[in-house]
Amino acid sequence: MRDPEMFKFDVRVRERMLRGGRITVDEVNGLLQSLPDVESECEDVLLAQPALDLAAAAAAPARQVAVSPVPALSEAEEGQDDESPTDDEAEA
User: Fold this and answer.
1) Are 54 and 61 in contact (CB under 8 A)?
2) Is 17 part of any domain?
3) In the chain, how many domains are there?
C-alpha cells in the first residue's frame, strides 16, 4: 500500500482493528463512501471456477479415501498412565 495508514482498513485485518478499537465503523463507512465509482471503467472477466461450480462438482466422480483402523488398546496399555518421563527428565 502506498499509504501505510490505510493498512488498518485492509479487509484482511479490518475486523481485528475494529475489535481492538484502532478504527471505528463510522471511519470504515466514511472511507467506503469516499471511494470513487469506477464501475464504468471495469471489464467483466469470465474464468472457470470449478470449486464454485456445484453442477460440475456433482458430476465429478467421488474420491475414495483409504482410512486405517485405529488399533485397539490391549489391557496392559489401558492401565498405563501417560505420565512417563520425557527424554529431558530421564537424562536429569
Assistant:
1) no
2) yes
3) 1
- CA dist., res. 55 & res. 3, Å (int): 43
pLDDT at 71: 62
Residues 22-79 pLDDT 10s:
999 999 999 999 999 998 999 888 888 777 777 666 666 666 556 556 665 655 555 5
**Using CA atoms in the order 73, 77, 80, 68, what is the torsion angle rounded to 10 degrees?**
-40
Structural domain range at position 10:
4-33
DSSP 71-87: PPPPHHHHT--S-PPPH
Q: Does residue 20 contact residue 11 with C-beta atoms inside 8 Å? A: no
Helix (H, G, I), strand (E, B) or coil at 47: coil
Do 26 and 33 meet the contact criterion of CB atoms below 8 Å apart? no
CA nearest to 30, candidates 6, 52, 53: 6
